[in-house]
Amino acid sequence: MGLYRTALRLATLEALRPTGLLGQATPSWPTLAADWVFDSRIDPLEDALIRGGKPRAAIVVFTDGDMGYAGQHRGGPPFRRIVDLCFDISQIAWEPTGDNEYVAGVPLTDAELEADLDRIESEIALALLYAPGGKIWRQLTGSMVTDPRTTPHRDSEEGARLAWRSMVWKVQVPDDSFEALPLTNLVGLNRLPQPLQGVAAQLLESSYGSVIAAALGLSMPTMPLGTPLTTVTLGQEVVPPGKTATGTANLAGEVSLDGVTSSSEAGELDFSEPGNPLVTPT
Description:
Elements: H1 4-16, E1 37-39, E2 56-70, E3 79-98, E4 101-105, H2 111-129, H3 135-141, E5 145-154, E6 161-173, H4 196-202, H5 208-219, E7 231-236, E8 251-256, E9 263-266
Parallel strand pairs: 1-2
Antiparallel strand pairs: 2-3, 3-4, 3-6, 5-6, 7-8, 8-9
């Protein structure tokens, strides 16, 4: 129920497919999938595959189940969010369909492909939990991961195992937090709630995540503007011994909160009782 899931996916994508490596001649990618790391669905890959060539690894990142736990006994936000962060890890190759026709698909697994899938699982954990490129992800999640599990996929007709696994981590992320009473009109990324705003602010402007966040910021609703508090006026009635309080402050002052407004005033204090001469504060 929130943009914290978008923040989680974008932080994950940036760790596994760093924007700074795109376009480099010889990039050192965090995983065997290289730049074949996708958000929520796999892009068309036919043009990038070599017919008859070795399968290529791909990772699709998406979020699935989401549970919220109230941070206070009576319930209500902010909630502690536990999100299923999912990785579809597969090997993609041209598969024959008959009549000399081929289609991009997932082949049956073998020892080499299984080892590659094992390697990618390990590389994902390294990239997110330990490597420098996962800093944004760790700031978002605090590395609070529980119940990691992996499920293999099988051919629907023969039941044979495919070179395709789904890995799921339960990850704790902060709930959406909006600025309650902004003092100025919010624009751009400032319209987004935390933690998405904080994640987007750390991404390169050319990154996939920045494009997504900027589009969301264009139309995100915001709270009404608040009235700034500039001064606090303090008043107190000072009553000498033997006098009766009137309920009217005779000592007052203003405290500036904006560094501009300042003033103070004091009423005359009547200490005219014996032993207490008239005193006029200055």
